[in-house]
Amino acid sequence: MVENEITKNKRQWVRKWIDDRNETGGSALLLKQLRFEDPAEYKLAMRMSPQNFDELLSMISSSIQRHDTFMRDALPAKSKLEITLTFLASGMNYRFLSHFYRVSKPAISQLIPEVCWAIYTALKTHIKIPEREEEWKIIEDGFNTKWNFPSCYGAIDGKHIIIKAPPNSESEFYNYKKTNSTVLLALIDHDYCFSYIDVGANGNASDGGVFKNSSLYRRLEDGLLPTNGVIVGDAAFPRKNYLLKPYPGTQLSTAEKVFNYRLSRARRISENAFGILVSRFRVFEKAIPTHVDTVDAIVCAACALHNWLRKRSSSYITSTCVDREDNDGQIIEGTWRSEINPLPSISEQQRGNHSMTAKEKRDLYRNFFMTAGSVPWQLDRIH
C-alpha cells in the first residue's frame, strides 16, 4: 500500500513523457547508441570522446549528483553533464533540450549553471598564468618559432559575448555594436590556450576600462612578465612598455607597416583561439537567453573545457582548423573562419598619453624587424 501511494504521488508530480526518460530519453537511446556504434558522431555531439566524457564525469559527479526524494528520483549526474554539454555544443534552447532528454525545462534551467560551475571548478587549474621561468620560456619559444616574434609571452584580446538583455537593465549591457553583451577579456598563449580570463564586464563599459579594471592589468603593472617581455594586442588596448599595439593611421613608413604586419601575425593566436572556442561551443553564435550569472558560468566552463580538451585530445585543434602560412608567408585561413561568425571585438581605445619607454619599446621592435629580425616575405605582405 505504501509503495502504491508513493507511485501515485510521483505520477502527480511527473508527466508521463518525462517519467519515461530512462527508457526513451536521448541519454538512454541515441547517445548510448552513438557511444558504442559511432564514436565520431558521439564526439561531435558532446565535443569530446567517450573516454574524455567519463574522465570529466568522474571529476564532477560528486558535486552535481543529488539524492532521491520521497516525491521523485534525482536526475543522474551523467544525464546532467550530457544535457549541459549538448547545450554548450549546440546552443539548443531549453525547450528542445527538455523534449530530447525528457527533463523538465525548469530543471534544465537550474542544472546548467550548476554543472557549468562544477566543470570550471574542476578544470580551472588548466587556465593559469605561468609561475615558473621554464613555463614562460615555453611560451616565448612558441611565439618566436611560429610567428618570429621574440620575447612575446601572450596575445591579449577582448570579445563581446552576446546576451539577451536582462529585464530593467536599460543600457547597462548595450554595446557599440547595438547589441547587449558581457565582455570576455583573455590572455592567450602560443598554443591557443587561455592563460587568463576575466569574465562579466558589462557590454557598455569602457573598453580600455575593462582591461584596467582587471587583475591582469595590476599584475602586469607590477612586473608579471620576464625581463623585457611583452604581450601583443590590437588598438583596443593602451600602449605600454609591456604591451605592443599597432602604429595608428594610414600614412605609415615602410618600417611601421612591417611592424604592424608582424604584430598581426603574432595576434592570430588570439583570433584563432576565440574562433575555435566558438566553433566548438556554438552556444556563443547567438544571444544567450539566460540570466547574466549563468552566462558567466557558461563562459568560464567553455574556456576551461577548451584548454582541457586542447591538452587531452589531439583532434580538438587540428592543423587545418587554425591559420597557417605557406613557405612564402601567405596565410592559409583556418576552417573555423568559414564555419562561424567571429565574436565582436572590443572597440578601439581613445588615444592618450603614453610613456616614452612604451614608445621606445615599439620602435625597438620596428627597427629589429627591418634588420636582424626580418623575414624574407614581409615586404610583399605589406603591399
UniProtKB/TrEMBL annotation:
Q: Does the keyword Phosphoprotein apply?
A: no
Q: What GO cellular component is one of the record's annotations?
A: nucleus
Query: What InterPro entries does the record point to?
Result: HARBI1-like, HARBI1_dom
From the UniProt record, which GO molecular function terms apply? Answer: hydrolase activity; metal ion binding; nuclease activity
Q: What keywords does the record list, in alphabetical order?
A: Hydrolase, Metal-binding, Nuclease, Nucleus
Localisation per UniProt entry: Nucleus
Residue ranges constituting the DDE Tnp4 domain according to the UniProt record: 156-307
Protein's UniProt keywords contain Metal-binding: yes
What cofactor does its activity depend on?
a divalent metal cation
**Family membership:** Belongs to the HARBI1 family.
**UniProt-recorded name of the protein:** DDE Tnp4 domain-containing protein
- The organism encoding this protein is Parnassius mnemosyne
